[in-house]
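Please, structure for the following, as tokens.
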Amino acid sequence: MTNLDVQVEEKRKDIHTDAYPMSIGEVINLYVDGDLDIHPEFQRIYRWNQGQKSRLIESIMLGIPLPSFFVAQREDGVWDVVDGLQRLSTIFSFLGIYRNEDGDVEAPLKLSGTEYLPELDGKYWSEDFNENHLSKELQRAFKREKIDLKIIKKESDEHTKYELFQRLNTFGSSLSDQEVRNCLLIMINKPMYTWLCELSVNEHFSSVFPLTAKQIDEQYHVELVLRFLALKDVDVERLRGGLDIGEFLTKRLKELAADTTFDMVIEAQRLIKTFKILDNSLGENSFKKYQNGRYLGAFSLSIFEVIGLGVGYNINSYDESNPAHLAKIREVSEQLLSNPEFVRNSGSGARASTRLPHILPLGREALAV
């Protein structure tokens, strides 16, 4: 056997799966009985409109096969939905049984007309919701339709479902990388997800990042919190050798989420202190280019990696009431574009694997006080 044969055989032993069709009625019963967890927190991330939801219901009514649904069996026997969250929540919403993250049953879904079934317009599931509802015959047929379930058994390696979720929601996904990471973190460590989101809207953190509405909608402000936590103290050697920064951030997120020694209270204090000092010294110009006596342009990731991470690395030595410390930050900021090392490694074509090993040490050294 080749080394590859051995690796494949070893890894396949970590993954135990099963597959079988199940009626929608059976899936509904699992959800009502609490045997199926669909993570309602994800609804803030997945953004289906009424038309998309109506087309899903149309597909089921017409007998059009749906893509497989993936679930992972937990130790307590509950099935954790890994892929198919939006489709299942739409079905449950249509039936008027969908519960939000607070545990409250939401208002039932009202359908809109579709290409093949324009008569769906304004339709509800049953007479309990509105007089314009599906017939009993259509309700029975709907619940008898089958869906294909792929089950990751509890005997599988504990990281299998997270890896599967990431892959299914990355390839061809309309979600941003950070939106996928947010979902992943909710599954692994929900308190840390809440903590990251709270830090991302801190007044001083928000003040120094003049982001667009689109960037915020795609959770880029949360990604910036993660970049700060993942990179400010990192061993630079980890960043060499063809690094893909997106994959690195996801890996670091998993590491932090599983690290029982990671102190969120202390790390929050360091982050807040860092961005309060940056806000007081440079404000919204913290990560912009300084040229010809003034700040220009939009947010620069390379400047953040020098200034933001440099201050963060040295934050325990900073005193926010010391004018000399604030002046130090302004001085480094204003002279950055004159630094040959920064200019050489911060161009638009510079990859993270070549950029970060040079400019992280630059910021750490230049911003030491």
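The first helix runs from residue 3 to 12. The longest strand covers residues 17-23.
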